[in-house]
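Field: COMPLEX_INPUT
Field: COMPONENT_COUNT = two
Field: RESIDUE_TOTAL = 1097
Field: MODE = joint
Values follow.
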Amino acid sequence: MNILDFLSPGRARAIDGFHPVASSPLEQRLRDAGATFEERDGWLVATSVPHEAEHAAACGVADLSHLGKLEVRGAVDQPPGATIWYPITPERILCLCPPWTVHPMIDALSDQARLVLDQTGQLGVIALVGPEARTVLRRVSALDELPASGLVAHVAAHVLERQGTILVVFGQEVGHYLWEAIVDAAEPFGGGPVGVDLLGDAGRIE
Amino acid sequence: MRLGAQPGELLDRSTRISFQYDGETVEAFAGDTIASALFAHGRRVFGRSFKYHRPRGLLCCSGHCPNCMMVVDGVPNVRTCVEPVRDGAVVKGQNFRGSLDRDLLQITDWIGGPFTPPGFYYKTFIRPRRLWPVYEKLLRGLAGLGPLPEGLSSDPADYADDRYDVEHRTVETLVIGGGRSGLEAAIAAAAGGGRVAVVDEAPRAGGSLLLSRATMGEADALVARARAAGVDVLAPARAIGLYEGNLVPVVQGRTMLRYRAGAVVVASGTMDQPLVFPGNDLVGVMFASAVRRLVNWWSLRPGTRAVVLTADDQGHEAAGELAAAGVTVARVVDLRERPTAQFRAKGHRGRVYAVEIAGEQVDCDLVVMSGSPQPAYALLAQAGATIEYDERRGVLVPTSLPDGVQAVGAAAGEVGEPAVPAATCGSGGDKSFVCFCEDQGAKDLKLAIGEGFDSIELSKRYTTVTMGPCQGKLCHLNSIRVYAKETSASEISVGTTTARPPWAPVTLGMLAGRGHTPAKRTSIHHRHRAAGAEVIWTGQWRRPLHYGDPAGEVAAVHQGVGLIDVSTLGKILVGGPDAVEFLERIYPNRYADLKVGRVRYGVLTNDNGRIFDDGTVVRLADAAFYVTTTSTGAAHVLHWFEWWNEIWQLDVEIADVTAANAAVNVAGPRSRELMERLVDAEADVSNEGFKYLDARLMRVAGVPCLAIRIGFVGELGYELHFPSPHGPHVWDELLAKGADLGIRPFGLEPQRVLRLEKGHVIIGQDTDAESTLPEASMSWLLKYEKEDFVGRWAAELVQERGEKARLVGFEMVGDVLPLEGAQIVEGGRSVGRITSVRRSAAVGKVIGLCWVPAAAAREGVEFDVKVGDGVERGVVRLKPFYDPTGGRLRA
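Field: COMPLEX_OUTPUT
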């Protein structure tokens, strides 16, 4: 094993009768919402949620924590496959990518970067879609111009935007709390949880 | 009293709404306010004044004065003149004993005057002193405005649906006030590009254009033009402050819109000002704008016979509209033509029936007053504008503005040429009120001046003028005039009081917004919940205290195998060519000689040598280390590392991976057996292949782990660090495969007992901000042979001056369990304290850690511990209570 493999959920293997499946920090909240789950790329993913179409008509709140996330340090150009490349500073970049591309990406970046760290387990991702997505974001954060980093519901987060979908990236340990805060903010508009399949291309980071 | 349908009225007569007032059903139309509906229903008395309990009727109809405050659906102090009607609402009067129409407490008006001057509670009710408790109870019972809702719960969860929201908005230009000037400014700003918003506190934008049917169309056209230009027009939406950085909180319904604006345009128009004359608060005395709203918005006839007293054109406009509505206008007195006119209103049972003008009595049931129109400058003043008195026009106007703030229209001082009313326009008869909120009259202000409160700021605090619900909107200008007159000074030299937010009263719920309590949870959290854990807060973390049987959990660790979630530990990667040098400098002990695959305990001290965190350091590779910290100290340690490296500029990468990894501690004599069942074939967990203080990479249940052989709880143990998303999987597999080994999850309470048996310290509990390494019995960590390290100087100083106190283990002579924090006493004086104490079944004693004087830090020394009112004996023990040789850890 590589010395940092113990940080990478993608390095788990189904061996010796064990079948490791990665869980999102938001899994329990989605279970509470009655979500249907499927195993995808080693992750248990909430694919659909009751009433999700109604929620999405206002503000759908989806869990994309299974996405790959890398922290890249150094003056590095965006490689192919890095769907979202967010320079937090000129030499510190947050990269979001499909989960199966994490390790090829690490290998590809290692030559240029001072450090490439798999932050897939460290960070969770909540996606907001729908006509009220921006309003819901404004109910929990003062961040305006995206992408931006700052407080969302009083906890540190990065807020990104892709094809009209707002992505809130946060430390996974506050995931339950942040999910509650965002869903609560969405509720007055008729918003609520949705599964990843409802997002279609907009929510798919591929 | 309700007129037929009028052009421009706000009513939707096709939609009927009913609500309850004092048990009676009141019918209304959509578009009515509660006050307009009650007025149509025949109600004239809407409130009782604060001190004298005088009946008060509608005065401003714009949500500024205190007269119409009522209890609506249990919420007190609702200004019913701007509160829309809603079906099924329950409305009650407030601030009376009896009824709104017959209030027993009005006796204070009839006979209480001499007893209730300004500051009366310091004067009238101080003798005889023995009666003060009676006075106090009486005064407290009468004080305050409005009742709290009945049956209030102390549980916040009961108010979860009673929500207030906050919404952050950013615009290039925010215009406060949706009158002609404001809308035109917004349209101009929108033409320049960028986001523009207009907020107006009235039910709809249009400002004073809406007061006249003739100009309502112009208002609607302007609003339409603004919207077409992309301007976001919000009404009703009230700006309550103008803060630094052009932060403007705007209340819209139950949402606080926090605007950040590049530029703020204040177009807040004017505030109606009362004239000060005897009986100016009688029911039936109204502002001209209020009368116009009643007639033009809600199609109400405010009276049958009116007298108009005016300093500007608005009185004439109101007179014309009243006449058109069928009201007889008996007299119009224009102060521009008769600047010295004297008048007083006469009333019966609090209602006006006549006005005496220069000795001539004119019968009426409505008095329309329009003092000089005062620019609504409060928000400008809050932002730092200079406000000065314009002697010619008798109003306060902004004369300089801060950067990024503009004033337009009437708010900027464009109020025409009104008359300057006298400080008091009449004498004799009834009271002449300057402050309607606090029941302060011109006489009260004179009295305050006579008592030496001759500064307007001092007077404000003494008389409370401008401190009531209107916050000076109706009384500030008149109080300045009275002060100027009584002190023979000019209004300019009297000056103004400080304008502070909020511009209008706002509920505490609105200020608080939606309640958010950030909480951190490990990826295994819900497994603990499912297992029945009692979960507590530790810092921001939610952690299991125990799973219902702390003693049994301790026993499982000693006898079989236990499992604790320690994912909350801080975790930091330190890597790069200078990683060793960095750790050598920041820790007092050595890391250059730490071999790859080994772990070492580390304590961090600040520059003054005070202990602030501890943890372990694993050497992953020659130039890569994995550092753990305490659960609550992770962020501090990370910042500490980054801060020092900014100074040292070493070639080091420091990365926080606290949340990336879950961590569990598998501890107990059978933990190796359990590990053997879960690790992959290549992993060797034998004592020879994986020794105490070794660290190994291996798969556990298929998941890549960093396994560390350490033992905070004193038994053979493996601390497993692995990707957080696999927390539930690894936890489940450990429990499943360890079932026959007697595995049990254990929480913080068992952990505290177990670590105490080993004498292991918890930083922050057993140490404080004064604790140094030598005094915490950790001198063995200080490696003075190193060139330098953070805190070295302080440690040497302690060595030089000698130790004052020491952290040691102790056991109680008896079976008494002192409190943590209990004092160690000598001759009745406190000389130390207990920091941790538990009853240990394994040791068979009450054991703990405590600070004692350095001289007493010797094996077997006895001391007294304060327990309740007495003392109990404790004995110093310098070795671990359990497995003192560490044989079980190394097994």
